[in-house]
Design brief:
With about 425 residues, this protein is an all-alpha fold. Helices cover about 70% and strands about 0% of the residues. It has helices spanning about 10-30, 35-60, 65-80, 90-105, 115-125, 135-145, 150-155, 160-180, 185-210, 220-235, 240-255, 280-295, 300-315, 325-335, 340-355, 355-365, 380-390, 395-405, 410-425. It is elongated and about 75 Å long.
Length: about 425
Amino acid sequence: MAEVSDNKVPALVDHLFRHQAGQMIATLVRVFGPRHIDLAEEVVQEALVKALQLWSYRGIPDNPSAWLIQVAKNNALDRLRREASLQEKSEEIIRAFAAQEALTHQRAGAGAGNEALDDSLAMVFMACHPAIAREARVALTLKTVGGFGTGEIARAFLAREPTIAQRLVRAKRLIRDEGITFELPSAKEMSARLDSVLEVIYLMFNEGYAAHSGENLVRADLCEEAIRLGSLIVRHRATNLPKSHALLSLMLFQAARLATRVGAGGELSLLSEQDRTRWDRRLMAMGFHHLDRSAAGQEFTEYHLQAAIASCHAAATRYELTNWEQIVRLYDLLVELNPSPVIALNRAVAIAKHRGAVAGMHEVEKVLEHPALRQYYLLPATLGELWQELGENHKAADHFRQALRCSCSEPERRFLQKKLAAVTNQ
């Protein structure tokens, strides 16, 4: 047993729970069946509470992961004795947790984690089943796979805790009512089902990378969980597909810049303002690796193009060296795949960087009246930037004021206020 400080135990338990809860819940759901997700979560939660209670005065065990798995196994066996319909599952529980315990002692073993990986992925596919509403898919994945509490999910998405709890209840009820199974899809269904999983992971990452409202622009825990799930996906032979690598590549490139997304004054920091020496070179190298892996096969997705665009920024050691011509070409292809007004606006910005503000303004005008952009602060903010570049500070100020009337996060609001001050104080 190791000596502990006042804060060490909660931090360690939180770390272990976040990294192992999903695996333990997945194993229990495989054994108990999808109808008993709540029971699986309760068993793992009890192990967490026991660790918090005992480690503070007994000390941290030499192998905390194995201890947690052992307690969860004992809790599960206790529950089985009380649940007549599940009593025959005892031997299966013992075998399943023995495999998990072996994994904690043999992390490098080539085959040690195969069953655990299958369980985790089956849980992801069940939580991301297309029959479940999109928002509920995200919440259920974070809860059951990521070990996030209901309160954490609510805070991350600035929602009320009862709202998140209701989403989770509805999702679990649908799993029961629709008979959604705990298994990997067949080879025939895999690609389509994987699309739903990748969409959930991407939504999770985007909310962490650019929070839509609230005090924080970046919520790193959501980004980290999305990357962890993306890494899980590419490790399994059934989901090790080019589009999986493309999404992981995109997230890694974006995550490499997280430390520079917010300026010293707490405002949004543009690419042109970021200190590139602080970009995470390890994550960028991993991004390029997975971008290369995404080139295999014939499928070509939005994730491929967005990752390629992100790679152009990663490859530029200085902002002035950004290959805007290549970025415009990639956006041309992306708009063909997805003619979204947001993508069209991003393309307009790239055109302005490549061909000048007037050309960019012409492209922005094409989406000016689109209803989806009516409250999107980046539309007037982009026009403000372009008018400022053209020396029309009065028009720029009007657009920055309009952007400030739209919904955005506090760092984005501070950025807009800074831009407004720059064009009104001259």
